[in-house]
UniProtKB/TrEMBL annotation:
InterPro entries: Epimerase_deHydtase (IPR001509), NAD(P)-bd_dom_sf (IPR036291). Belongs to the NAD(P)-dependent epimerase/dehydratase family. The lineage of its organism: Bacteria, Pseudomonadati, Thermodesulfobacteriota, Desulfovibrionia, Desulfovibrionales. Residues 3-291 form the NAD-dependent epimerase/dehydratase domain. Coiled coil: none annotated. This is UDP-sulfoquinovose synthase.
Length: 382
């Protein structure tokens, strides 16, 4: 397939580009380096520098002989979007291109406005471009498990059948996001569902949990092909942050009681999930939703694992319970269904002791580069 990856410079976008290219697909990536610019603006940086998209594509071509086409530009601009879609003519579009940080979206009015206008604006342009230039192409969009919040009932995969006063109907599962960023993801899903029913597009929305890890099959022997690895509060996901904190002896930043439970997955499984969803597409007129994670952990579970494995590796790891800067339930029921991707063929890479130890050992090689001053900023929700 000819696959267009939007957000191809990102933490997930670049590893996905290599993975799909390695699996025989023609890949084109698009990005405007927004993520890099937000990091610069906030004075934070990834654990190690990452070459730009042209450089990474050149390295990939040298190593594999496979080409990844690169397009630099803002997907909110219709002239740029239409030019890219017409030149690439995709069979499928993978949409990662959003402002992905909950704390960034809660910093102030300006970052809230950027998150809203960027995320909804890009999704709308993608929908209009698919309709105009490639109406048979599947849109695979990355949503988040955070759209559902933490309801006191089981979370289904996207849809809920309701029996009300003797009549039945099926609706999008009720969503109650806990940050502005997550709320834009809810709006994305609503927008996509509106146009799927109106124009008969085909789409898969992957409700993904927090991702951890750096190593994938494609970058194992080449550090220059590794993705961004942020460990700051704004752009680092929780387990990635804990691993870096453990390595430099910074007490693990557990918020509140630490009972916040979420569905997690290894970056290798993100790649599998999106490939499986692309290769076995939704039908025309279908919005297919999968819950994309492999196992659930509370924040305390993760912290305890990091302490235990850190000690095995000779590190001095401690935990510091901090007043929770966010507004979220710290103890709650959590039981989400996640069978759809397993049915498509997902073979999970679980968070074993070995996986965590390998991640910590890799981060230990870069420990001198860690800046403790950017680890915790305490971005408050109110
Ligand atoms: N990383 C996770 O744990 C996680 C979990 C759940 C959902 N997600 C979702 O997955 C997607 C990718 O996340 P990520 O962690 O790789 O984030 P990321 O910030 O590393 O990647 C997103 C990329 O999109 C680009 N982008 C954003 N707006 C753009 C625009 N207007 N034009 C062109 N490019 C633009 C950014 O520059 C960035 O490189 C996001 O939609 C995010 O919401 C991520």
């Amino acid at each position: 397939m000819q696959i267009l990856i939007l957000g191809g410079d990102g933490y997930l976008g670049w590893p996905t580009a290599m993975h799909l290219s390695a699996h025989g697909h023609e890949v084109a990536i698009v990005d405007n380096y927004l993520r890099r610019r937000m990091c610069l603006e906030q004075g934070v940086e990834p654990l190690f520098p990452v070459p730009d998209m042209h450089r990474r594509a050149a390295i990939w071509e040298k190593v594999t002989g496979k080409r990844i086409a690169v397009h630099v530009g803002d997907l909110r601009r219709w002239d740029f979007v239409s030019e890219v879609f017409q030149s690439v003519k995709p069979d499928a579009v993978l949409h990662y291109a959003e402002q992905p940080s909950a704390p960034y979206s809660m910093l102030d009015r300006r970052t809230a406005d950027l998150t809203l206008s960027n995320n909804i604006g890009v999704t709308a342009n993608v929908i209009f471009a698919v309709r105009e230039f490639c109406p048979d192409a599947q849109i695979v969009k990355i949503g988040t498990m955070g759209e559902y919040g933490t309801p006191n009932i089981d979370i289904e995969e996207g849809w809920l059948e309701i029996d009300h006063k003797g009549r039945k109907d099926k609706f999008l599962y009720p969503r109650q996001a806990s940050s502005l960023y997550h709320t834009t993801k809810v709006m994305d899903t609503d927008l996509l569902w509106f146009y799927v029913r109106t124009w008969g597009l085909r789409a898969t929305d992957l409700m993904q949990g927090p991702v951890y890890g750096i190593m994938t099959d494609e970058n194992e022997n080449n550090p220059e092909l590794m993705p961004f690895f942020n460990y700051d509060e704004l752009f680092g996901t929780v387990l990635n942050r804990f691993v870096v904190q453990a390595v430099v002896g910074y007490p693990l930043t557990v918020y509140g009681q630490g009972g916040q439970t979420r569905g997690y997955l290894n970056i290798k499984d993100t790649l599998q999930c999106v490939r499986l969803s692309l290769e076995q597409p939704a039908r025309k007129g279908e919005l297919r939703i999968f819950n994309q994670f492999t196992e659930t952990f509370s924040v305390n579970d993760l912290a305890d694992k990091v302490v235990r494995i850190g000690k095995d590796l000779g590190l001095h790891v401690s935990i510091r319970a901090l007043p929770n800067p966010r507004k979220e339930a710290e103890e709650h029921y959590y039981n989400p269904v996640h069978t759809g991707l397993l049915d498509l063929g997902l073979k999970p890479n679980y968070l074993t002791d070995d996986v965590l130890a390998q991640m910590m050992q890799l981060v230990m090689k870069y420990s001198a580069a860690v800046r403790p001053d950017i680890i915790f900023k305490s971005v408050k929700w109110s």
